[in-house]
Amino acid sequence: MDGDFEPKILGIFCNWCSYAGADMAGTSRMQYPPNVRIVRVLCSGRVDPQFVLKAFELGADGVLVAGCHPGDCHYVKGNYRAERRIALLKEMIKQLGIEPERLMLKWISASEGAELVKTTEEFLTVIKELGPSPLRKKS
Amino acid sequence: MPVKVMFVQLASCWGCHQSLLDLHETLADVLPQLEIVFWHTVVDYKLHDVEKLPDGSVDVGFTEGFCRTEEDLHLLKLARQKCKLLVSYGTCSTYGSIPSLLNLYPIEEALSRKFKEAESVVEGRIPDKHVPKMLEHVKPNREYVKYDLFLPGCPPEPPLIAGVVTSLLKGETPKLKERTLCDECPRVKSDVIVLKKVKRDFEGIPEPEKCLLEQGYICMGPATREGCGAVCTSAGVPCKGCMGPGPNVMDQGAKMLSALASIVDYESVSPEDLVKAVKDVVGTFSRFTLPSSIIPKAVFKKK
Questions:
Q1: Which residues, at least 6 apart from A112, have a Cβ–Cβ distance to it below 8 Å?
Q2: Which residue in A has a C-alpha nearest to residue B298's C-alpha?
């Protein structure tokens, strides 16, 4: 199974920066791994920790939360909140038996299409090394 | 005609039944209306007496505690079989509560720690004769049997119990209050909270009137159901969340984690500081609801 393991990664991207960054990558015809399924939210501060936990419950191998760079948040400080939530959440999932590396927070601005490609590729490598999530149902 | 009741004690500390006795004079009005068919620490009926009862012949059953051994599980299933209405009494029974934090460790490791490695033990061995088998995990009782009513609290406060018991005697369905603890907490709260420092409970002495969360203590109020009468916060102790999650919340721990992260001042508290200040994330935020939260539930489902 390890040889053909294709991780499922949920991307939760903020509308103003990271989602636009993904758009940028698309319009610039850059390719990034199809393992990432992107959900758009208005702000990374909107990402309720329950969303992330729910994603893991449903079998996601990794969750990538992306928002605006510090100081750039459309809603002033949503990304600072996200940063603190993800820090605590990493600690929480670690205690619950999920590797904290499966959760990643990244700042990607609207012009950083290339950065998005790089991030997703790197994250995919990390997840592939970790193997399937302990909560993933055997298919 | 008296109402037939049974009180079942699973693995627990007996605190919930203690709280029932704290009803004092109210008990004098209630007791004559009850016929206790099983309450193994108070009246002298044995398990086989319950097994002999016809199914569904007991009007109300209260279960306190969680299932740690196979015997507990047997008792719980028996209670469901014999009772028309089954009440989950206390937080252990409803959400799993503090003892379920042991789920974070494999049971073998826990048994070995307790019976072999503890400092006071000499030539320890894990008991295996004449004791019921331990279950691998603590699950909330609702994962095993269907309940008709949940009465959380560690322990449920006497007025809450009195309300439920009297409405049951009247033949009504009791309804729990559905807001958060902050709504009934008498402390003065301001509209915007910005925490410069997150404190642990033992640091300093809290001001008597001001909201504890505003003072920097991790108070679980915003993520906890009301109904306890804010006994802890009124006495200057931050809420630990024993009433369980408020309505429409899947994971009390995640919700409180989120709330705390959004009120800290991002200039003075870095993410690393915050993790350090909380110290034990699961033990702080999911102290009473670990096996009812999202990830542990998914782990049970997979097994």
A1: A21, A24
A2: A57
Sheet holding A62-67, edge to edge: A36-41, A9-14, A62-67, A103-107
Which token pair is B197? 């420092």
- Does residue B122 belong to any structural domain of this protein? no
The total of structural domains in chain B comes to 2
Interface test with B, best of A46, A47, A91, A103 (most B CBs within 10 A): A91
The position carrying tokens 């009741």 is B5
Q: What are the pLDDT digits (tens) for B159-211? A: 999 888 888 888 888 888 889 999 999 999 998 899 999 999 899 899 999 99
Q: Which residues contact B44 (CB under 8 A, 6 or more apart)?
A: none
Phi, psi of B35 (to 5 degrees): -115, 110
CATH number, domain with residue B44: 3.40.50.700
Q: How distant, in Å, are the alpha carbons of A115, B138, B221 from that of B289?
A: 39, 11, 14
**Do the Cβ atoms of B266 and A81 come within 8 Å?**
yes
| Chain B contact set for A96 (CB, 8 A) | 104, 282, 295-296
- Residues B27 and B60 both lie in one domain: yes
Between CA B292 and CA B280 the distance in angstroms is 18
Evaluate whether B85 touches B60 at the Cβ level (below 8 Å).
yes
Which CATH fold topology does A2-130 show?
Answer: Rossmann fold (3.40.50)
Structure tokens at B63: 């279960």
Question: Whole-model pTM?
Answer: 0.91
CB neighbour burial string for A51-89, b if at least 16 within 10 angstroms, e if fewer: bbbbbbbebbbbbbbbbbeeeebeeebbbbbbbbbbbbb
**Other Cβ atoms closer than 10 A to B118:** 10
Q: What pLDDT is recorded for position B31?
A: 85
Residue B209 burial (CB count, 10 A): 8
B90 and B134 both lie in a single domain: yes
Alpha helices (runs of H) in B172-289, residue ranges in sequence order: 181-184, 231-234, 252-263, 271-278, 281-285
Per-residue pLDDT at B247:
81
Phi-psi map region of B97: left, alpha, beta (phi>0 left; psi -120 to 50 alpha) = left
What angle, 0 to 180 degrees and rounded to 10, lies between the N-to-C axes of helices A49-57 and B252-263? Answer: 150
Closest by Cβ to A49, choosing from B257, B274, B299: B257
Angle formed at CA A43 by CA A77 and CA A52, multiple of 5 degrees:
110
